[in-house]
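Feature request, filed as a ticket because there's no other form

It would be nice if the structure record came with a short human-readable summary line next to the tokens. Right now we just get the raw output. Example of a typical job, pasted below so the devs can see what we mean:
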Amino acid sequence: MKIKEKLAIALKNAMVNKDTIAKNTIRMILANIKNAEIESQKELAYPEIVNILHKEIKIRKDTIQDATTANRDDLIALAEAELSVVQIFLPEAMTAEQLRELTADTIRETHAESIKDMGKVMQALIPRLEGRISNAEASAVVKELLS
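Raw output as currently delivered:
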């Protein structure tokens, strides 16, 4: 089942269960997917949708951080609830150990030797991640291993 289908089913369930947080969060995700499809003039592939979900997670984490700084417990609770809704639709996250192993294999395969080869490594690594970890986290590991 595609992610968009799962989102549509979850939206219906949230509406039936009168779960406004889930309903609003899923609607926001679907709107962002639709906007990206309109912008690219094609239906988004799985990795592109997963990237949108990762962006949504980053937004929620930034909101939690800002709300913590401002002592806004109500906003923290809302953002955490939204974050848990978004995370439901992501594939199982890759562990740090798995990421390091996959990155090391990719570095060997691309014959990368220095930080100058980072683009080549990232280009080969991103399709292998399958949306299980954000590109920023992968980039940090690549930098660490190439340094």
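Something like this underneath would help us a lot:
The chain has two domains: 3-88, 96-146.
The chain has seven helices and no strands.
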